[in-house]
Specification:
Layout (H helix, E strand, L loop, with lengths): L4 E8 L2 E3 L4 H11 L3 E7 L3 H11 L3 H9 L5 E5 L2 E12 L4 E12 L2 E7 L6 H8 L2 H4 L3 H35 L7 H18 L3 H9 L11 H66 L5 H4 L3 H14 L2
Parallel strand pairs: 3-7
Antiparallel strand pairs: 1-2, 1-3, 4-5, 5-6, 6-7
Helix pairs in contact: 6-7, 6-9, 7-9, 8-9, 9-11
């Protein structure tokens, strides 16, 4: 279990404490009516997750989603437990690619379970930041939920800025007429933009529910404005990503139009050179095959006269 559980602790009044047996600790917390357990998992298998589920008694459908992964961003409510699935993103500077991972969160009565898949958006910094803000952490399990969601959406904002820089660079290269711009580069950036769009856009609905649904379990009125703030940040990212997608389509069309114009110019040049070469080719063919006695052997200047005639016909057109 140690290689799967990244961290686990009990939090009472915003203070971290050691966690013993999960079921015993959870029973004590529920009897006391305060505090909660936070368990952080990384890439658990079925058997490994079953050890945690045996103690917490999570809903089987949510457990299936958490174990299989590759879920669309969503929010499900099972009895008194909230299950949220989100896509995490990581920008790789060396290749300008966007790598996708997942974070799934179970928020229930006196417990939080975070399940992370992939290397994007580690939650260690979120936990550390919360532990240094006991007043914030004292809000309970819901504080972990909005802190994790806030961290993920903040990372979307950073990737938004990186994609904006990549887009500005390609736009400048295309419309400045620079050589070496490849359509595959534009398409690759468009694919990364769509990767972010698939992560960010579906997350709006869960945030709206968390912000406005008064019957959501574990939720309290003081926490709802925090989800509204996250929703505003996410909406800004979605607006930017939509504009990038449209602009990249326009840039790709402009690039293809430039290629078409360049090919037409090349064809005109080739046609001109062919036309210029046609006259001397015809003269040379006639001149080389239709004399019984070669003129330059009988007339010293005949060869040069013919060359001059061909030059005049080519450059005088």
């Amino acid at each position: 279990m140690s290689n799967v559980i990244v961290d686990q602790a009990i939090y009472r009044a915003g203070r971290r404490m050691l966690c013993g047996d999960l079921s015993d600790e959870l029973e004590l917390l529920r009897e006391a009516g305060q505090g909660f357990i936070w368990i952080g998992l990384k890439d658990p298998t079925d058997a490994e997750f079953a050890l945690v589920n045996e103690e917490l008694k999570l809903h089987p459908l949510a457990v299936e989603d958490a174990v299989k992964g590759n879920q669309r961003p969503k929010l499900d409510v099972y009895d008194d437990t909230i299950f949220v699935s989100m896509k995490t993103l990581r920008y790789i500077d060396a290749t300008s690619d966007v790598e996708t991972g997942e974070v799934m969160i179970f928020v229930g009565d006196r417990f939080v379970v975070t399940v992370r898949r992939g290397e994007a958006n580690p939650l260690t910094t979120v936990r550390t930041r919360l532990e240094h803000a006991p007043d914030h952490l004292a809000h309970g399990p819901i504080a972990v939920l909005y802190s994790v969601m806030d961290s993920i959406v903040d990372n979307y904002t950073l990737i938004d800025s990186e994609l904006n820089e990549d887009l500005d660079l390609i736009e400048q290269q295309v419309f400045s007429g620079a050589r070496g711009v490849d359509a595959s580069e534009i398409y690759r950036l468009k694919r990364e933009v769509l990767e972010v769009k698939r992560a960010a856009t579906p997350l709006m609905l869960p945030l709206r529910r968390l912000r406005s649904d008064d019957e959501m379990p574990i939720m309290h009125v003081e926490a709802q404005p925090f989800f509204g703030d996250i929703s505003d940040h996410l909406l800004r990212v979605i607006d930017h990503i939509d504009s990038y997608d449209r602009l990249l389509t326009d840039i790709l069309n402009a690039h293809l139009a430039q290629i078409s114009v360049q090919q037409n110019d090349d064809m005109r040049k080739i046609s001109a050179w062919v036309a210029m070469a046609a006259v001397p080719t015809m003269v040379a063919g006639i001149y080389g095959m239709n004399f019984r006695y070669i003129p330059e052997l009988t007339y010293h200047w005949g060869y040069f006269i013919v060359l001059g005639l061909m030059a005049c016909l080519v450059f005088g057109r």
